[in-house]
């Protein structure tokens, strides 16, 4: 998720290997359609994974990404409070109050209208769903570029669980990482849940 004004921060293109892999996966995402059944299966796995969380932070997906709209709807229906990103130069968050309260934001990503809670609001989250393009069974994550979440996670609690939603073909044996790339605790696809750190 590249955000304008992120100069001097981790961003796509710093590592040529990351840039090549991102290009390959982005092409696959824009040319491969997912079935409704596969999307529903991933959502069900994700809901089950974070069932004990009281506050969940979750990104608002673009059409080519694993869908988060159904996940957020299921969580809010179950009484879970959901934080969603406000895409600004510095990470910011707002409570999800319904799809009708979202407006277009940078890079075709919807976001809540109005004032945010600040970056420190992420410390309220028990669980954080991160966007990504690929991951490994040992928890390495290839982000979407721009370093927004790498910066945001500095405000997360150490015990907050970090999850990654992927298409199953994006679970790889290896992904390039750099010093600021934080690992995730589990990966969820339409076919499986991979736990890196036992609960």
From TrEMBL:
Its cofactor is Mg(2+). Its EC number is 6.3.3.2. InterPro entries: FTHF_cligase, FTHF_cligase-like_sf, NagB/RpiA_transferase-like. GO terms for molecular function: 5-formyltetrahydrofolate cyclo-ligase activity; ATP binding; metal ion binding. Keywords: ATP-binding, Ligase, Magnesium, Metal-binding, Nucleotide-binding. Substrate binds at residues 60, 65. Pfam families: 5-FTHF_cyc-lig. It catalyses: (6S)-5-formyl-5,6,7,8-tetrahydrofolate + ATP = (6R)-5,10-methenyltetrahydrofolate + ADP + phosphate. GO terms for biological process: folic acid-containing compound biosynthetic process; tetrahydrofolate interconversion. It is an enzyme of class 6 (ligase). ATP binds at residues 18-22, 141-149. PANTHER family: 5-FORMYLTETRAHYDROFOLATE CYCLO-LIGASE (PTHR23407:SF1), ATPASE INHIBITOR/5-FORMYLTETRAHYDROFOLATE CYCLO-LIGASE (PTHR23407). Belongs to the 5-formyltetrahydrofolate cyclo-ligase family. This is 5-formyltetrahydrofolate cyclo-ligase. It comes from Propionicimonas paludicola.
């Amino acid at each position: 998720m590249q955000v304008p004004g992120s100069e001097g921060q981790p961003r796509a293109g710093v590592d040529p290997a990351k840039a090549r892999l991102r290009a390959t996966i982005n092409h696959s995402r824009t040319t491969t359609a997912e079935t409704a059944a596969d999307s529903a299966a991933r959502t069900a796995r994700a809901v089950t994974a974070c069932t004990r969380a009281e506050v969940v932070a979750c990104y608002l997906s673009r059409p080519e990404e694993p869908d988060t709209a159904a996940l957020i709807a299921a969580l809010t229906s179950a009484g879970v409070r959901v934080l969603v990103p406000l895409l600004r130069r510095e990470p910011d968050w707002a409570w999800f109050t319904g799809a009708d309260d979202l407006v277009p934001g940078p890079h075709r990503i919807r976001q809540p209208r109005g004032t945010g809670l600040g970056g420190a609001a992420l410390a309220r989250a028990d669980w954080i769903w991160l966007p990504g393009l690929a991951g490994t069974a040992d928890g390495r994550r290839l982000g979407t570029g721009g370093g927004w979440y790498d910066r945001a996670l500095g405000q997360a609690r150490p015990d907050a669980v970090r999850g990654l939603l992927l298409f199953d073909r994006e679970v790889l044996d290896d992904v390039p990482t750099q010093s600021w790339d934080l690992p995730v605790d589990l990966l969820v696809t339409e076919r499986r849940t991979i736990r890196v750190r036992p609960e």
